[in-house]
Every structure is written in C-alpha cells, then in structure tokens.
Design brief:
The complex is a heterodimer of chains A (312) and B (554). With 312 residues, chain A is mainly alpha-helical. Helix content of chain A is 76%, strand content 0%. In chain A, helix 9 crosses helix 10 (220-250). The N and C termini of chain A lie close together (8 Å). With 554 residues, chain B is α+β, with helices and mostly antiparallel strands. In chain B, strands 11, 12, 13, 16, 17, 18 and 19 form a seven-stranded mixed sheet that branches. A four-stranded mixed sheet of chain B has the order 1-10-9-8, with no helix packed on it. In chain B, strands 4-5-7-6 form a four-stranded antiparallel sheet, covered by helices on one side. In chain B, helix 10 (307-316) packs antiparallel against helix 12 and helix 16 (474-485) runs antiparallel to helix 17. The two termini of chain B are 35 Å apart. In chain B, 48% of the residues are buried. The chains are: A mainly alpha (312), B alpha+beta (554). Chains A and B meet through helix 2, helix 3, helix 5, helix 7 and helix 12 of A and helix 8 and helix 14 of B.
Chain lengths: 312, 554
C-alpha cells in the first residue's frame, strides 16, 4: 500500500506539469492583456510608461518560452508566483480561502451522503414501492433544480420572509451561515448519490452470497448493513470522491449566491481579470486536490473490498 | 372588570396607537447621534489592496478614503478642492510653485505625529521606479520626477521639506488639474515605518491619519474599520463600518430587505422596486454620476468619416425612449458629453432631437440610397452594415445595442453586434480594431480632464491614449489647449463649453446617457450624499444612525 501511495504521488508530477503547461498556453493565447487590468481596471487610459514598467516588473516583456521555464522552475520549488491583482503570494491567497471551501465541502458532502445513501438504501430495499418511486422523483428534482435558483429561494424564505438564518456571508465560519449553502450544494449531489446507491444496492442484493446470508437466517438488517452495503458502496465512494473534489474547488455558483469566500469564486474572478499567476496557481491546487482525493478513494476501496490490493 | 378600569385600558390603548402606530420619520429636531455600526455591501467584489497608492479601484476607495488623508481633499459633492491635512496653501504667480502648510498635532493611527517629510516619502513611494501605482501621473509634472522615475536620482528635487510643517512642490509648468489629482489615492500620506515594517503586506495592514482606523480584512468576505476617536477633525459619529462582499444582485437585495445592510447602491433591476416601495421610496439618494455612456465611432473609417452620417445616427435613435423603457429611467438622457454634475456642464446645449426623417435626409446628402432590402447603399454599392463591439452589460451592452438596432434599421442602417468580454473590447478599441463600440467612459473630476479625451494628441499610441474615436478638430484642440493654460476658472469653463458644442456638432459618437447612480437606505441612516464622482464614495464620518428610528423599524 505504501508503494502504491508513493507511485500515486509520483504520477502527480507529470499530471501537474501537463495541466500547468496547457493552462499557461491558454492564458497567453486568449485575448485580453493582463497589464491593461493592472494599470487601469476600467481599461480606459493606459499610461504607456506605467504599462512598460509593469510589463518589465512582472517579466512579461520576456519571450513566452522563458516566462514558461521560469514559472516551471519556481513551481518545482513550491513558489506559485505573485498574483498580478493582489500583489501577494499566490499560495497564500489560495490557502486563505481554503478553510471556507473546506467547511462548505465537508458540510455539503455530509448532507449529500446522509440524504443520498439513506434514501438510496431505502429505495433499494423497498423497490417498486411508493417509497422507491417517491425517492427517485425527489432525486430527479434534486438533480434538475439549478443550484442558483434553489439557493435564492432558500435565501428568500429563510433569510427574508421567515428570517431564521442569515441570508448570506461567511460569518467567520459560524455554523448558521453554513446551513443554507451546504444544503443548496448538497441536495443536488444527494440526488446523484441516491440514484447510484439504489442502483448499486439492487445489483448487490441479487448476488448469491446475499441469498446465502438470508438462507442462514440472518436478520434483514444484518444482511443489508453487514453484507450487502459494503460492496454496494464501492461505486458510490467513487462518485463521492469526484464530487468532493468538485465542491472543494468548483462550487462557484453557490459561493457567488451566498457570498462564500471560496476557491471556486477566486478562480473565476482571477480568470475574468486575467490574473495569470493566480489562475495557474488555482489550477495546480485543484489538480493536487483531485489526485489526493482519488488516492484516498483508492485506499477506502481496500477497506471496503479486501480483495483489492495495491502494489502487490 | 369595572367600567373605570375599562376606560383606563381604552385610554392606554388609544395612546399606544397614536404614539406607536405611525412610521417615525427624521425630523429637524433630531440631532446627530454618536454610536452604532453600519454594514454596507461591496457590490463590485473585494478590494485587491488597501494601499492608497492602488486606490483607483472603487472596491479599495470606498473604505480606504475613510482611513487615509492627503494634503487636500475633494468635496465629492461639489467637486471642489478643500483643505485636508494642509490647512492652507500658496500658489506662485506662474502657477508652478505650491507651498502647503501642514496641520500640527495630527497623528497617524499608530500614534506618531505627522510631519511634512511623510508627504515627501509617500509621494516618492508612488513615483518609485518599481512602483506600479497608476497615480504616477499625479507627480509627472513635478521637477525631478522623471529623473527619479528613471532611477537617475535618489529623490524628487521638486518636493522639498522646508520644515516639519511646510512642504513645497515645484512643477515644470502650470497644471490645471494638479490639486484635483492630489486628492486621489496617490496624494494620501502613509507612515514610512509601517510601510517598511510590513513591506508588501502593508496593503493588508493600512495605517493612515483618517477618521477611521483599519480593524480587519477577511479576504473575499469583509473589511472592518472603526472610529478614530483622536481624529484631528473630531471623532466620527459611527463606531464601526463593515464592508461586506456581495456581488450577486439578488443576494444583496435579500440582505437589504432583511435589514442586514444599512444602505446599498441599487442595480438596474432594483430601481423600479425601491422607487415605488411604500417605505423605501422616501429613502432614495440619486445622482447623475460622472460617467457618460455612448456608442463610439471610429472617425477615420468608413462610414464614420462623414459628419452627416454620424449626425444622422444621433437623430435616428430616441435615447429618451431607451432610457425610459430599457433602463426604467435609471439614467439621464445625454445631450452632450459633460454630465450635469460636473463644472462646465452647459444646460443650454442643444443635443440631438429624435428625428428619423432628418436622419434619412442627412444620409441621402451623404450619398446613400435604400437598397432592395431596405439597407442603405452608397454610390460604390457598399452596404451600410457595420459591426458594433459590445459586452453583455445590462445598461450599456447588448440589450441597448438591440434597441439601437431597431431604430437604425428604420433608417436603413444595419448593425451587427459582436459580443465579447470587457478586456477584449478595450484592447480592440485601443488598437483601433473596430468600426463602432458601446461603452461607458468618464470618472474624471475636472472638466478639462473630462474633455481632454477629444484632443487629437490623445489618439492611442501603443495602446495608450483616451481619444479612442480617433477624432480630430483643430478648433477643439485649440480650445482645449487654451483651457489648459488659463488660470481663470470661468474662462476655462467658457473654452470647454465652446469645445463641447463643436464636439456635439461633430458627433464623434452617439450620445446615449449619463449614469444615474442611486442609493437606497434604511430609514435610520442619515447623512448619505449624492456623490457624482461615484456614489459608492461616501464620507462615512458624516453619516450617523438614529437609534430611535432604528428601534421603530426593526
């Protein structure tokens, strides 16, 4: 297992290199001059002397290939550069947003897993019943409902009409500020997990070993939760892993609606402002997060299915 | 219950209804009160720096204008320069030498007394060769600034500290906007020891002399400032201001309706709601801001080289109708270029009346005739179909272009929108790679600066230059040059008004509207002003909360 993890980490290097290179190329071919934004946010009057100095200071007067090599060399030393817009260390800016993103990701995944797995299991056990149909209709609604609309509706009902929760904001990480954004983000994912859980459970409960367990006289509860559920969760864990990466780094709509200071919003804002170092830094960060989560998911597989072994 | 007790109850109930049933309003008897916290949204997103030398962004200026002071300040309502940390100043006869007399006993927020040398340090910091401050232009005309900027001198010779409380600045030539420019972020004073202590991080730990002190900045979340009780101008009324990031319009509206925001700048979709609201319609603060919206023409490219064509477009479009129906009256139809709140505005200026027949006549005179599909064709068979660069801005973007398309089609002009991002549009316009574009321009607080963008010397070169229309009129150049050198304000205004008249007649653009910025506030907030520079720039030390009204309405 240790060898597997080390190999996984080493595989990250070419992945990050590739993603960084593609991002660098894309940021330099899209129209829009970052120097213009640095000099005048309104993009009206660009003082040529200031623009020339700014270009020189940021190394933007050098040939692209040199800029690329300097950047890669810095990244290997853990230096993601200085943000054009903030004039601060890129890694510092991202890490400042990480607590808020992590809180929202964990809370929304908790909502998603709790609602999704429970409703998926019940739907599978009560297959073809009204409970099953009802769960899947709700799941379909959850997947179909735009998070933007859902968020605003919740905000209006619970923040304005019946003000029991703060409509938006981070509130220093206070729990009550987390409720609406995490439910908004979590319900869409819950729907996905519910459908996956149901489908996977239905597949597993038809296996012979489950029939054997029932034949041995074990209670339905033991059959489902001790024997069937672990195997049914393997594909579900994959979905949870992918979604976790997404909510941690890309929940930009929910973050925007609820004024949540997360990484997703940071990336979109930096794209709009042509803040190349910050965009590249965010992309690297997202790549590392996804690789880390994939590795954790692989480790969980081993626990769920002892037949799975790595590095042996 | 006895009859006597019933009467007592009825009497009390009647008194309660009379006293508490109506909505309390601000009356002349109410005096400013000390205390309280105001929370307001930052609708353009978070600040990127709290360093005043990057204060060109509204997101920074709205908070830091209350934390930092300069030699002079701008009365943002009247747009006149007033004393600030310099209680008076002398200007030499030739207009080149300014001597500022600094107030004594003013302290930075770290407790150290302000001296004249702090200004020299602050200004040289802005002009430093490695500085990225866009306020360098403020000091470009100071003797020795060029050499300092090029790294050839260790100081700016034209900034002299005569003693602890006297500063002299010498310019290479008279500059009509020098004092105005000093009121901006580049003219604000910072303590050297704090800048050197924090380095780049000073942008996150600002220290000034202003009525409010910095407390905290939670990135992408909020900025908090609190009252400086030792402020030289007297402590502000409020204890604390919280600026919360709130870019999404619907979210900002929900927070305001939930009374979590004490005031907000209205977005276009909110305008009708609050101007008709039974409570809030009495708590609106509107102002024509210093922003002119227009469709710019490339005056050196066909078909815009012909003045008759440009005038025809101005006659063909009913800007009043567009402002009324598209913008719900959240703008002022433009007659010229200078907005009503800027000195130099000419109320007698005749703009273009909506007259499609006159437009058609002008186009015929310019050599166009209708083609088989109604689109005009010139003598060489070239169709009058032009591209217009646009963003998707709700007030001066694609929706406005679509309205204009309809009007122009009626006179035989085809308009093809090219939708793009603001930065891309800006690049193309500066490079001249366009036929027409729609946008908003302005922001200058001096009328000379506002009109300077029509001088032919301002044609963009290597991306810089405000005359993006490539407009040229020698008489306008002459008038602007005369306005620049005269030291007589009234004479300057006359020159500028004459120049504007010619510009309007030449019609290098379609004059669309002046922005109507509007604040809506909770009933308990008092002291907000109609600030034409940008209504977000409120001097918060003059604002206070009526606790009585707050209790009534919460």
């Amino acid at each position: 297992m240790h060898k597997y993890i080390i190999r996984k980490i080493l595989h990250t290097i070419p992945i990050i290199l590739g993603i960084t290179s593609i991002t660098f190329i894309l940021m330099n071919v899209v129209p829009g001059d970052p120097v213009a934004y640095l000099v005048d946010e309104r993009l009206q009057e660009i003082d040529p002397l200031v623009a020339a100095n700014v270009r020189k200071q940021w190394g933007l007067d050098k040939p692209l290939y040199l800029q690329y090599f300097y950047y890669i060399a810095n990244v290997t030393r853990g230096n993601l550069g200085i943000s054009f817009r903030y004039n601060q260390d890129v890694l510092k800016i991202i890490l400042e947003r990480l607590p808020a993103s992590t809180q929202l990701a964990l809370a929304s995944m908790f909502v998603a897993v709790l609602i999704g797995t429970v409703s998926g299991i019940i739907a599978a056990i009560k297959q073809n019943s009204s409970i099953d149909t009802g769960s899947m209709v709700v799941a379909l609604a959850g997947v179909s409902m735009p998070s933007f609309w859902q968020g605003l509706m919740m905000m209006w009902v619970f923040g304005v009409l019946w003000p029991i929760l703060p409509p938006s904001g981070y509130g220093g990480g206070s729990f009550k500020y987390l409720i609406m954004p995490s439910i908004t983000l979590g319900t869409g994912i819950a729907a996905l997990i519910a459908r996956m859980t149901r489908s996977s459970m239905l597949n597993v409960v038809r296996q012979e070993y489950v029939t054997t367990a029932r034949a041995k006289g074990l209670s339905e509860k033991v059959v489902i939760f001790k024997h069937a559920l672990k195997n049914a969760l393997i594909p579900v864990v994959t979905v949870i892993g992918v979604q976790m990466g997404g909510v941690l780094t890309g929940a930009v709509i929910t973050e925007t609606v609820f004024n949540w200071p997360g990484v997703g919003r940071l990336l979109v804002d930096s794209l709009n402002q042509r803040d190349t170092p910050l965009v590249q830094g965010c992309v690297i960060f997202i790549a590392v997060i996804f690789v880390a989560i994939n590795t954790i998911v692989d480790i969980i597989y081993v626990y769920l299915d002892p037949r799975i072994r790595y590095g042996e | 219950m006895s009859l006597k007790r019933w009467r007592w109850f009825i009497g009390i109930a009647a008194a309660a209804i009379l006293l508490g049933g109506g909505t309390a309003v601000l009356t002349e008897e109410m005096k400013p009160e000390y205390g309280g916290t105001i929370t307001r949204p930052m609708i353009y997103g978070d600040a990127v720096s709290l360093d005043p030398m990057f204060r060109y962004r509204v997101t920074t200026a709205m908070s830091m204008m209350n934390v930092f002071d300069g030699l002079v300040e701008l009365d943002y309502v009247k747009l006149v320069v007033e004393p600030d940390l310099a209680h008076k100043w002398d200007i030499s006869e030739d207009g080149k030498v300014y001597t500022f007399y600094i107030r004594k006993g003013v302290k930075f927020h770290n407790g150290r007394e302000l001296k004249a040398s702090d200004f020299k340090y602050s200004f040289e910091r802005v002009m430093h060769p490695e500085s990225q401050s866009p306020f360098r232009r403020t000091f470009n005309g100071v003797v020795g600034a060029k050499e300092y900027q090029e790294g050839k001198a260790s100081e700016i010779k034209g900034i002299e500290v005569l003693d602890d409380y006297t500063l002299r600045m010498t310019l290479t030539e008279w500059d009509p906007v020098f004092l105005h420019n000093l009121t901006d972020g580049g003219g604000q004073v910072v303590p050297r020891e704090e800048v050197e202590k924090w380095g780049r991080e000073f942008a996150e730990h600002p220290v000034g002399t202003g009525p409010f002190k910095f407390v905290s900045w939670k990135k992408d979340d909020s900025i908090v400032i609190e009252a400086n009780k030792d402020y030289w101008g007297g402590r502000p009324y409020l204890d604390r201001i919280i600026y919360r990031v709130s870019k999404e319009a619907a979210t900002t509206e929900a927070e305001f309706d939930a009374k979590n925001f004490d005031f907000m700048v209205m977005r276009d979709p909110m305008y009708r709601k609050y101007t008709n609201h039974p409570l809030y319609k009495n708590h609106i603060v509107p102002v024509p801001e210093l922003w002119t919206r227009r469709i710019g023409f490339h005056n050196q490219k066909w078909p815009w080289t012909d003045k008759r064509v440009r005038q025809a477009v101005n006659h063909a479009i009913d800007n009043q109708a567009i402002v009324k129906h598209l913008l719900h009256d959240k703008a002022y139809p433009a007659k010229g270029f200078i907005p009503p709140t800027l000195a130099g505005y000419n109320p007698n200026l005749e703009g273009y009346r909506y007259d499609p027949e006159r437009a058609k006549q002008l186009l015929v005179e310019a050599g166009f005739k209708p083609g088989s599909d109604g689109i005009l064709v010139n003598n060489e068979g070239r169709r009058f179909e032009v591209e217009i660069l646009t963003t998707n801005h709700s007030a001066w973007g694609l929706p406005a272009v679509e309205a204009v398309q309809t009007y122009l089609k009626k006179v035989g002009i085809g308009l093809k929108p090219q939708l793009m991002e603001g930065s891309v549009l800006g690049d193309k316009v500066r490079e001249g790679d366009y036929s027409s574009f729609i946008g908003s321009t302005g922001g200058n607080i001096h009328p000379y600066s506002y009109l300077l963008r029509f001088h032919s010397s301002e044609w963009p070169v290597k991306g810089a230059g405000a005359n993006v229309y490539r407009y040229k009129n020698e008489k306008v150049d002459q008038l602007l040059s005369q306005a620049e050198v005269t030291k007589n304000w009234d004479e300057m205004v006359r020159f500028l008004q004459e120049a504007e008249k010619i510009i309007v007649d030449d019609a290098p653009m379609w004059f669309y509207n002046y922005n109507k910025a509007v604040i809506v506030h909770q009933p308990w907030v008092v002291g907000l002003k109609s600030v034409p520079v940008d209504i977000d720039l409120q001097r918060i030390e003059k604002v206070w909360i009526s606790q009585k009204l707050k209790k009534e309405h919460l």
